Structures are given as structure tokens and as C-alpha cells.
Amino acid sequence: MIEKKLKWFGESGLHARPAGQLVSRSIEFESKITFINCSNDREGDGKGIFSLLTMELQKDTDFILRVDGYDEKEAMQSLLQLMVNHEFIAETPDLGIKRIKPADPETLRNTLLPSYITESKIYKRYMRQK
Questions:
Q1: 3-state helix, strand, coil in the chain (%, to 5)
Q2: pLDDT higher than 90, residue 66
């Protein structure tokens, strides 16, 4: 089991869009992913959007990200990268994760989209048209 204590940095707290992005990333892994709001001790399952929304995570609130399972390291790394890229949490040296600059859209797209999307025929056709 891996745990990290973090501070939510998003302007409007945890609302539907960031919760949806976290759930989309969480379901790619077999590990159990739990978010815990430190101010009210509410837990949210990382694979359920309503569970995350009921945590009432506001700006500058501390929370714990807990990942438990055989692919826990990859899941933790992926979720932290997503949260740093979208500025849900602040980029700090102790995380060992750097924000991917928007100036490099190809890298950003490959990092944020799962491989089953980027390898699909429809996606490749769409990218050729751009």
C-alpha cells in the first residue's frame, strides 16, 4: 500500500470535471484507489465519481491518496502526473513529477489519453485531418 498526503490546489474544489478525469484514470488500474479528505475524514473510491464528489474536497484542503494493489506504483505515478498536469495539486520537488508543458501537445496528448484511444483507427484518422 502506498499513501501520499497532498493539498488540493484546484480553484473550485473537486467538482464533476476533475472527478471524472480521476475516475477515468483510476479505472485503468486493478489497484484499489482511495481518496481521503483530511478535514472531514470522508473517503472516496477513486473508481466512483459520486463517491469522490461526496468527499467535499475544497481548495487548499489536505487529502490522502491511498493506492493498494499489484500495480500500485504505476497507478500512483499516473494519478499524480494527471493531477500535476491539470494543476489539481501543486508541483513539488518531493513528488518527483514535473508538469508537462502545454507547448508540447503531442507529449501531453500521449500522457493523458489511454493507449486504447491513441491506437484506434478513428483517432488516427482524426489526427491526420488536423
A1: 40, 20, 40
A2: yes
Residue 87 — left, alpha, or beta (φ > 0 → left; ψ -120 to 50 → alpha)?
left
pLDDT higher than 70, residue 59 = yes
List Cα–Cα distances, 72 to 1, 33, 50, in angstroms: 7, 9, 23
Closest CA to 2 of 66, 64, 47: 66
Domain ranges across the chain = 2-99
Say how far apart CA 16 and CA 119 lie, in whole Å. Answer: 27
Pick the CATH number of 2-99 from 3.40.710.10, 3.20.20.140, 1.25.40.10, 3.30.1340.10: 3.30.1340.10
Q: Which tens digit of pLDDT belongs to each residue from 91-106?
A: 665 666 666 555 455 6
**Mean pLDDT across 65-72:** 93
Whole-model pTM: value is 0.72
**DSSP element (H, E) containing 125:** helix 121-129
